[in-house]
Every structure is written in C-alpha cells, then in structure tokens.
C-alpha cells in the first residue's frame, strides 16, 4: 500500500515538472523564416561575354535616305576630281519626271565646253567625262590632229515620253544626252550624221560610237532608225541582266 502511494506521488511529480517546463520548450521552437519579397519584375542575367547592343534609332526609310545621300556626295566628289565644271542643283520633281542628283554641266575635263550648259543626273555627267577623256579626245587627235574644244548637246533633261509614246524617256530622268556634234581647235565643226565612206569623219564617228558602248547602257545614232539620224543618243538605262543596246 505504501509502495503504491510512492508510485503515485512519483508520477504526479513527473507530470508537474513537465507542465512547469513545457511553455519554455514551446517558446524555444524556432519560427520558420519568411520567404524573400517577390520582385516586381524578374531580372534575366546577361550571358557572359555578350555586350548588349543599343537598338538602332534609324528607320529603314531613314537608312535608305542616308545611303542615298552618301552616294550622291560621292558622285559629286568624283566630278570634282575629274575636273568637270558644274553646279549641283536641287532634286527635280515634275509630275513623274525627276532627277535625284542633278548637275548643270558647263565643261568637261580638258576644258571641253558643253554647249549649251546641260542639266543631267550626276552619273551621266561622270560617264560623259569618261567618254570624252578616254575616247573622243584621243580619237580626234588620231584622225584630225586636233583637240575637241566643244561638245554640242541637243537634249539632256526633258520631261517627255519616248518617241513611240510607250513610256517616259530616259531624258525625263536626266539619264541621257543627245550629242549633236563637236567643235575642234584646228578644224571645222563636225555634225553627227551619215559621213562619207572611208573619210576621217566617218572613222572618227564610228570609233567614238562603238567605244561609248562599254560606258553607256544605250548608244543609238545614224542608221539605228530615223529618229537618231542626226545625233548620238547616250543613256544609262538599267535593264535586266545588265543588257545593253548598241546600234
């Protein structure tokens, strides 16, 4: 009996101790940490070795305009280096007729006067200067022992259709010139026309006409058709496959 009472007192004592220290144990249970605050926008790390390129500020239209300005400036610079006498003019826009880079040419290299001063696209002026310097002047010295002094122009820029009326002429874009003849330092002028066979004039005209073909895309003259019996038509018309007409 006494033994049972001692066991009861021991159990009650242990229970009292557990009740006494239980709040302390509970207080020592660590509180789980809160998750870090969620950012407003996720940040994607930039891969190593790659620097971010700033986006282009130019639209495709602006880029094309800038490239066009660069090409026009380069052409004008070449005319200056070749020794042409010319004036740069504002772009021409007359209904469907237009010239993007017009120049008024008054003289070619070698002080060859252009009469009258003629408005044309810059690339045509450059090709005309090449033709005069590489072809016409050397051939004039060979055949006539005289330098050309004046290039006679019939039509350069003119807002009109082709003679057959099918579409706009290359003259409507300042892309062609009609050469009517030449004046020389030591001999009479020469008009483009059917020349006496085997004459120096015929040899000269034939040579400068054939040698114009690698420089221009279209070369027409006496014998091509009735419309070109009194002049050489030279232009830079672009065709598929770089096709050229040389007649």
Mean pLDDT: 83
Structural class: alpha+beta
What's the alpha carbon Rg, rounded to whole Å?
44 Å
Helix content: 25-40%
Poorly predicted residue ranges: 15-29
Tally of helical segments? 4
Main beta sheet: strand number and arrangement? 9 strands, mixed
| Tally of strands | 11
Distance from N terminus to C terminus (CA atoms, Å) equals 144 Å
Order of helices and strands: HHEEEEEHEEEHEEE
Topology:
Elements: H1 2-27, H2 60-82, E1 85-88, E2 92-94, E3 97-99, E4 102-108, E5 112-121, H3 122-144, E6 148-155, E7 176-184, E8 190-191, H4 200-212, E9 218-220, E10 232-235, E11 245-246
Parallel strand pairs: 5-6, 9-11
Antiparallel strand pairs: 1-4, 2-3, 4-5, 6-7, 7-8, 7-10, 9-10
Helix pairs in contact: 2-3, 3-4
Textual characterization of the structure:
With 247 residues, this protein is α+β, with helices and mostly antiparallel strands. The strands form 2 sheets. Strands 1, 4, 5, 6, 7, 8, 9, 10 and 11 form a 9-stranded mixed beta sheet that branches. Strands 2-3 form a two-stranded antiparallel ribbon. Strand 2 and strand 3 form a beta hairpin. The termini are far apart. About 6% of the residues have low confidence.
Explain briefly what this protein structure is.
This protein has 247 residues and is an alpha+beta fold. The chain has helices at residues 2-27, 60-82, 122-144, 200-212, and strands at residues 85-88, 92-94, 97-99, 102-108, 112-121, 148-155, 176-184, 190-191, 218-220, 232-235, 245-246.
